[in-house]
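Students often ask what a holo structure prediction actually looks like on paper. The answer is less mysterious than it sounds. You provide the chain, you provide the ligand, and the output is a string of discrete structure tokens encoding the 3D arrangement of the protein together with magnesium ion.
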Amino acid sequence: MTMLGFTGVGKRFADGTTALADIDFDVAPGEFVSVVGPSGCGKTSLLRIAAGLSTASEGTVRRETDRVGYVFQDPTLLPWRTVQSNVELLAELRHLSKRERRERADEAIELVGLSDFAGHRPGQLSGGMRMRVSLARSLTVDPELFLFDEPFGALDEITRQRLGDELLRLFRLRGFAGLMVTHSVTEAVYLSTRVLVLSDRPGRVIGDFAVPFGHPRSPELRFEDDFTHLAGKISACLRGGAG
Amino acid sequence: MIRRFAPPVLVLLAATGLWYAASLLLLSEEERFLMPLPHDVLAIGFGDPDNLAELLTALALSAQVAMSGLVIAFVVGVGLAVAMSQAKWVERSLYPYAVLLQTIPVLALVPLFGFWFGFGFGSRVLVCVLIALFPLIANTLFGLRSVNSAQLDLFALHGAGRWTRLWKLQFPAALPAIFTGLRISAGLSVIGAVVGDFFFKQGEPGIGILIDLYRSRLQSEQMFAAVLLASALGIAVFWFFGFLARRVVGSWHESVRDPAAVS
Ligand SMILES: Nc1ncnc2c1ncn2[C@@H]1O[C@H](COP(=O)(O)OP(=O)(O)OP(=O)(O)O)[C@@H](O)[C@H]1O
Ligand SMILES: [Mg+2]
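The corresponding structure tokens follow.
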């Protein structure tokens, strides 16, 4: 069974830019797939196609679920809403009852550890906290497929690692299938069960690495030989593709 | 509090002092009507019950004209901006005329409105509407456009239609800009009501007609009192919308939270 399947997918924009070519891959339930690739190779385009926000110009995309979480590169919170009401937004757009919204939001806010800040506005939060709110917001749709576009790109190293660990915990707890774009090979290996490497534009899959480490993972994993070895191989593949 | 209010109060005191000096030292008794002494303005303009009643009646009329104009301009301006934001062709067909409205001297059209619609309340309001319309259209449109593409993606992803998007995303995002527009337009509307008055010699007198009347009768204390009242109306309106903006969007939008940043 697959949660998301790309077969021969290509993307060509109206202005003639070809962003993606011949993309084939599946994401199965329980998998967390990371995509690394040079800047501008079409990673965001790939996620948007996966979410149905954009259509493939070639090939087919199969998605088994409508419960899709999408965490954008910046948190895209609505500044006029409180944390609570931001997290309730998606349930609201999906016309759930007030009580249901509240319950889901409370649970999600609790999960990301922001219960004390439910009444705050995004402007009063740090960058890391805003990203947590964004995560919580997506959690309320109880996603079966969770897409992440460089979710921690704008954060400092420590916050980044902490949020990474939180994401791992959520992944184990909720059991969604994940597809994440990131610039960091270490982060990709640490968080994923599989890492895909894309070439320069137009992006093609030039590497597909299984990550053999079990869960739970601890931060020390990053310094073990197997880990650095795998990260090294992926980096080499990335450099080769980027020529 | 003191740091905020002391400087402008000092400037006011200094200006009043200069006024007295100029009036007493530079002007002879016969010339004094050019710059009447401030306490005379207060005593004659506001202290005399008949004068005061006349002034306040006129002020109320002008305020009514200005506010009616502003309300209509607000409804029409926001409505047009929403329509433009929803359909490109509406914007393409109407925006050039909105800009035109901004470039033609509306006050020069007043005699024309007089011909067409008479010199009553309706024409006076129309002047205000035309003067106040453009800033509301432009600011609202700018605000509705200020949402970023990721926010639009978020709404699209979770099945929001155009009206949900407008109501829950674009409109709240536009509020700070709409308030900026309201503030500018409110000031313009007051100007439209007062200056427009100069052209409406018939009918009940607004504050502008009174100013002109006192000028022609050389009743300079009353004239200055009327000018002060007209200015106070402008200031009150400007302050009110600043206050309203802070109440409504101040909790999340910086530009209105900091009074110094508001222009
Ligand atoms: N709407 C569009 N119209 C035309 N070209 C586009 C459009 N969106 C993206 N592109 C182009 O497609 C290519 C891939 O863009 P995309 O945003 O998917 O790259 P990316 O891998 O996410 O880049 P980054 O790592 O910088 O985020 C780029 O060359 C970009 O300029
Ligand atoms: Mg991108």
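Helices of chain A lie at 43-51, 83-93, 98-111, 127-139, 157-174, 185-191, 225-242.
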